[in-house]
Amino acid sequence: MRLKRNNSKKSLINQENLSIENIKLQLNHTSDLKEREIHSDKQTYIILYINSLVDQEKFESKIIKPLTKMENNDISNELYSQEISTTKSNKTAINGLLDGYCLLMEKGGSSEGFLLKANASTDREVAEPVVEKTILGAKVGFVESLDKNVFLLRAVTKSPDFTVKNYTLGSSTTTNVSLIYLDHMTDPEIVKKVDQRIKSITLDSIRSVGDIQDCIEDHTVTPFPQLLLTERPDKASANLKDGRVALILDGSPSVIILPATFMTFFQTPDDYITRWWLGSFFRFIRLFSYIIALILPASYVAFVSFHYEVIPLELVYSLQSSLSYVPFRPFIELMIMQLSFELLREASIRLPPSVATTFGIVGGLVVGTAMVEAGIVSYGGLIVVALTSVASFVQPNIEMSSSIRVLGFPLMLLASIFGFSGIVIGVLCVLIHLSRLTSFGFPYFSPFVPLNIKDFKDTILRVPSWMMYKQPKDSPHFKREIQSRKWKQDESEGPY
Amino acid sequence: MRKRKTELVLLFFILPLLAGCWDERLLKNTRTVYLSGFDLVEEGDYQITSILRDMNISESSRGEISISNKLVTGNGSSIKEASVTIDRSVAGNYDPAKGRVLILGIDVAKGDIYNVLDALYRDPRVDLNAKIAVTDNSANEIITHLSKNEVEKGEYLYELIHSSEINSKIQDITLRSIRTYLFDEGKDFMLPYLSKDESDDEVKINGAALFHNNSFTGQFLSPAESTFLLLFMGKQSKKALLTERLDEEASVSVSYNVKNVSRELKLKKEEKVHADIMLQLDVEIVDYPPNHLYKQEVIDSLESQLSMILTEKADTLFKKLAENQSDVLGLGRELVAFHPSIWKEIKGENYYEHILVHPKVKVNIRNGKIMF
């Protein structure tokens, strides 16, 4: 009810015309909205700003001081502010004020106002990424400021093709979003699609990248992420060069990369820094660990409750000896263990690092062994769950690794009901689902379905960079990079 | 579309009820068989003797493993009935799926052994790679002995048979491969022949038991004879080591490893079916103290000596086979494939009577030098 009255009160006033009173009313006479009168030689100016958003020092030195000493009326020449723009619209002025601009108007003058940038920022220093660590890669991570993030990205992607499109999202509280792509490298269809989808977001407010992700992804009912979140400028830049698009949200250190395919989540900057066969090996390990994490718990359940005849004889006896003390069925046993590991994992995220180490020892070691000794789980179950969670940590992307954990439970259930055939059916369903997924119209399970063996070069394998394509294959500038090793031919023909 | 979706969802909920946990066999509830043997006891009843193995990982001192064997027996007029008797007597489900060795008592072996194996073939979970062996006594006795004496030795019997196969001492036969011998005519087989050595108090492989038409003939070949026969069959494994005594007085012997075998078989029908087998062995001398094998004449004389000895040995071997009418070489099969007209004339239970084998062996020494 109150909301309605407020709105009606505002709507009485003509919103279009720029006037101090008007703005004050629209901002509800908030206490930190300050008004100051400044007398220069010829004119009296009124300056309006939101105290909490304005950097006082900048404000004094770059706006107030030059203003008082101003000799002619040419504001845009005399002031040292970073950005100066003029506006006649009330709405633009309010948005500017909310972004940390000061509104400067001549007293009794025209209805034109100047927006002067003097915003305070809480920028932290650029630091090493916390989640996506690398061994040899750059130690630079995105920060919470949009401008700085664009700067970081531009700094590693020097190209005239680098294009930024700005959007302001949210109807009650606004958030700035930048869409970045390399013009000649990127499929214009994708840019158009992203543009349309972002424009269609009518959320009241944007809390995080998750909100954007929810609104623009192709499929919502799936455990697989279709957008890649990264906090590394080098990774984002490499993806831009591959013809992908980046979305940067103000206030978020995670940058959205799209369209992402399944294999995109298995790439890390380290792959390209180490030599190619090592990079390929690590990628293979990652893929292998993904499969292990998905199937191992289900296989264990199937083994001990249906098909123990396939376990080697010696192992049968040792598994049996510790299983015989467990009162639960294998599925329940593994569920208990998996859930307690999930608890540990969830709890350790919020703990300060110093406590987390102790917690890890107490939680992991003590609880694990005590559970076995108390006969709640068997040694086999403990090993399987521990291996599974280690394997799921190998996945470089957090969302992808969570997807395996989520998929693991239904597979376990299927295995406990149907045995091996259950696992086969379950994995088949996952594969069918993967093949049907798209990310911005691009097939998600791409080099496999539809099969494109040539693209294995940079998905399962990481071939030497001179064997890769310079441009996406369908681009008109397509050319192979094999020229990079032409020196070998030159040298052998040379004078030596 | 909507209807189809509801049907699918319904199907998903019905499926667990159909397949359900009925088929579930929990590992913790089973008693896995480690070894089983089959005997014929009085009144035509079968007796199964099995070792059930238990492993206890001690709770207090972690990692300490103690193994205990439990010997169970059960009688019944069929194999299945006997195993049901055992099932009743043990806690948990008696499960023969993991038995890697099946021992046939001599009485069972002398009858049609398929009577015992039938029940195993009908169980889809039985290990088809299980080895089969025959004993000179009852299987019960051997297993009782093993359960007392070889507790800690792991898969003692399996390893024993397996290593003999690797050394070409016995034919490589498993539960799966024996079936073709049982059902195809014109081919017999041999199984490892176990006996308890009284002096050493150990179970040993004495040789290869000869079979004729699914039943044990009562005769067995010594390991050396069996290796030799395997060479004739071309079924030796990588290691086929033989030793011949060349000179009785000076006690000179030569040991050699057969590297390669080529066999030429000619079958022709006269009064009887004559099978001329020419066996060429490429051998590598592994033990020959007089040495001087770098001289061509030494090699030549050794080759001719060995060829002579082996041809003689082959004659006695095939006489032994003919006595028992055990066609381990599979000459009948050869006739079926290449001389069906001959086979039509002689086929029947005792077709091997009509076949005369003339073996000839030629030895080529390929490598005799000492290597550094």
Shape of chain A: elongated
What is the strand tally of chain B? 13
Content of β-strand of chain B: 25-35%
Most extensive interface? A-B, 26 and 28 residues
Q: Average pLDDT across residues of chain A?
A: 84
Class computed from helices, strands and strand pairing of chain B: alpha/beta
Helix content of chain A: 40-55%
Describe this structure in words.
- In chain A, helix 6 crosses helix 9, helix 13 runs antiparallel to helix 14 and helix 16 packs antiparallel against helix 17.
- The N terminus of chain A is likely disordered.
- Chain A has three domains: 116 residues, no CATH class; 115 residues, no CATH class; 172 residues, no CATH class.
- In chain A, strands 1-2-4-5-3 form a five-stranded antiparallel β-sheet, with helices on both faces.
- The radius of gyration of chain A is 30 Å and the shape is elongated.
- Chain A contains 18 helices and twelve strands.
- Chain A has 496 residues and is of the alpha+beta class.
- Chain A is 47% helix and 12% strand.
- By secondary structure, chain B is α/β, with parallel strands linked by helices.
- Chain B has two domains: 196 residues, no CATH class; 138 residues, GMP Synthetase, Chain A, domain 3 (2-Layer Sandwich), CATH 3.30.300.210.
- Helix content of chain B is 34%, strand content 34%.
- Chain B is built from eleven helices and 13 strands.
- In chain B, strands 1, 2, 3, 4, 5, 6, 7, 8 and 9 form a nine-stranded mixed β-sheet that branches. A four-stranded mixed β-sheet of chain B has the order 10-11-12-13.
- In chain B, a hairpin with a 4-residue loop joins strand 7 and strand 8.
- In chain B, helix 10 packs across helix 11.
- The longest helix of chain B is centred in the C-terminal third of the chain and has 29 residues.
- Chain B is globular and about 85 Å long.
- At the A-B interface, helix 11, helix 12 and helix 16 of A face strand 1 and strand 2 of B.
